[in-house]
Amino acid sequence: MTEIENLKQQFADPPAEFSPIPFWFWNDALTEEEIIRQLHDFYAKEVAGFVIHPRMGMPREIPYLSEKYMDLVETAVSEAADLGMRVILYDEGMYPSGSACGLVVQENPGFASRGLRLQEIPCDKGSGPVRVPIALSPGETLVSVQAVIKPSAGEAQVETAIVLECENDGVSFTPPAVGNWSVLLFIETPSRGTIRGVHPGQDDGEPDAPLAADLLNPDAVKCFITITHERYYQRLHRYFGTTVFAFFTDEPDLLGRGHIRGLKPWTNGFLNELIEGGFREQDLPALWFETGDSAASIREAYETAVRNRLGRTYYKQIADWCEAHGISLTGHPAGSDDIGLLEHFHIPGQDVVWRYIAPEDGKSLTGVHSTMGKCSSDAARHRGRRRNLNECFGVCGIEGGWSLTADNMKWYLDWLFVRGVNLISPHAFYYSIRGERRDERPPDVGPHNIWWPEYGRFARYIKRMSWMMTGGVNGAEVAVLAGAKHLPWQIVKPLYEQQIEFNYLEESLLNTSCELEDGTIAIAGYRYKALLIEDSLRLEPSSLQFLRTFADQGGVIIEWSPERKDSAHIGQVEVSRAEEVPEALGRRLGWKHRLEPAAEAIRITRVMKNDICFYVIVNEGEQRYEGNLRINHTGTAEYWRPWTGECEAAGTLRTEDGQIVDLRIERRECIILAVDPASDDQGTGFRVEPAKSKRDGDVSVEDLSEGWQVMDGPWTGELPSLSSWTHWEGMDHFSGTVVYERSLELADPSAWSELLLDLGDAHEFVQLEVNGREAGVRMWKPYIFDLAETAVLPGTNRLRVSVTNSLANRYDGKSFPSGLDWPGTADEGAASLRFLWQEDMSS
Asked: Are 675 and 612 contacting, i.e. CB atoms less than 8 angstroms apart?
């Protein structure tokens, strides 16, 4: 068997390890029988794993981490092991992680989350000596007392700061005659922050909300590990490293939710650590006040110290424990661009939530959240991690609630895959939607939603794409220099739009993990010929020296300087507009692949797996694309279609420097172009014809807008015209299925090469039967079915269309368009119901 045939088999039926691993909300009165039933239901839909996520709604009768709770966990893990499923354990009683649902603070009240608060006492001019009493509440510690000139309420002159000594529970200070002076007290205090717990009364603002722990305190984190991780290991150790393959940590929050306002993250003795790193005690006011040019650098130094300590005390401790126990650390930090904090993750992760990115309003490429797909994948690439995860879909509906569609789910998946994400953790499958559970963080994207009967299609797609994006190296020759908490998005937007591949490269890796090899930056199997930077003056001296050497060896450095600011001299090319970057790269590196005509909505990543080149091509836009892809790889080319698993020959034309490939990609479609260089025996100009297209040749259109009957639903009867059923009497908030039927007269179906039924606007889950036989399922537009592949007959044929709409109409009181919606006439284009066919010219 050739290598490409071997890969094709794996693509068609990938191993179960590439299955979606959904969050499974344990949010009700759990029973072993129901856990096993649901687990088998997952398995039947080809979902071969899950994250056990204790969630709001668990009764007090099942205390978190109790024997009863652990019995249920063991039941789920044991059953998963018997089925060959894989399990990720979640490390918290809801979220954010780190407090063990308040048990850490119960163990030691001194382990509660802490912050630094500021208390300001203005001094009256000319008032003489001032005596400031210092009264601390229980658990508080005085960190510093300073006197400083305050030109205004929001400003402080740190160069005037005077550190005062506390004596007899107070400080004395005589303000100089010049300036408006204030005495500032910096007090370490319990933050009073909480997490969301799992039991009634433990949500935000409720009396029993669990107290957050001090994650900057290594002893508090050690206590967390003992209570949580060791507890799971005690009961499940025989499954660790096999069925149980990871622990998930989720958005640890240093101050906790609902903390005292105005605090800065802090812990005991942290000032000494700051000072050892070059911070001055007199710099503390800059954390609250504007202090001129020094404020930004002071705050950055403080935030870097906090982040480094969190990495050391929290993430590294947990990662070391996981490694010692044969499993991986996964999950994600709080920020969408927190790439530096992924250093210790064995499976780096991020999460798409709250529709921060979306198909509309340019959200796919703008703003800090647009970096999160590359955040986890590039962290994995440069640290040699095989997988990276995204917790996706939570609260991503266009109007919140249950408005998320299968259409949008597909868009989010493609957005993630083309950026390199290869472990999908859908948020979430609900154990129960009883009562308030239905609205806690909707929607259920699994068993309780309309697409569940056909979820196996999603599971297979996720497996194929996760497999495709695992074990290869992407084709990026361009790196974009990133900070530990800064991933540039403006400079990369035109790269996406012109299909120029790039990877984010953290500055911290330049001198620790990168080598210079013949004018390239080499790291973890990647070789970058060009580096993009935003502000060279912010780079470390060691980084500047590294880049000068890179430029001297012939490497390309492009700096985006929109305001023509001063810059370091490292041999870079400067551009004032981000849109100039692709052309600057093209002049120096040439083009590896190019669309003709150009298309800003198409994304391409080039992946090498076992010496086979794969172009993963995603349409993030709303229109079908037709054109050519010019590539510099030669060899037999095939289209691999991950939604169906089908493969077919691609239409290509050999050129002197590669080949031109016919490309037709529908809205919401992903196509993989596989090129086998080992089969390259074609000469220049040789043409391989593509499979016959549904749009080639003459097309006739028959209007099918009339003649429909509703056969099943709350209302049945003849339809004078098609319209959203929310306009029908009594159905403005109906969620469910309506069945339409219509006859179709065909003279001789065999005389036509293709018979395409286009249902135009449908909302939203459509199943078609032709003459009593299933003819396909569509979950998003275009709702096109090829009737030539069905049992159509000469004479009268019966079309039966079952349409299921959004649950938002029922659960959220919406009236979203539903059913077969007829906005116009057949000749008005795609937003219509059409019947298309084309004559077979060879017959």
From this structure: yes
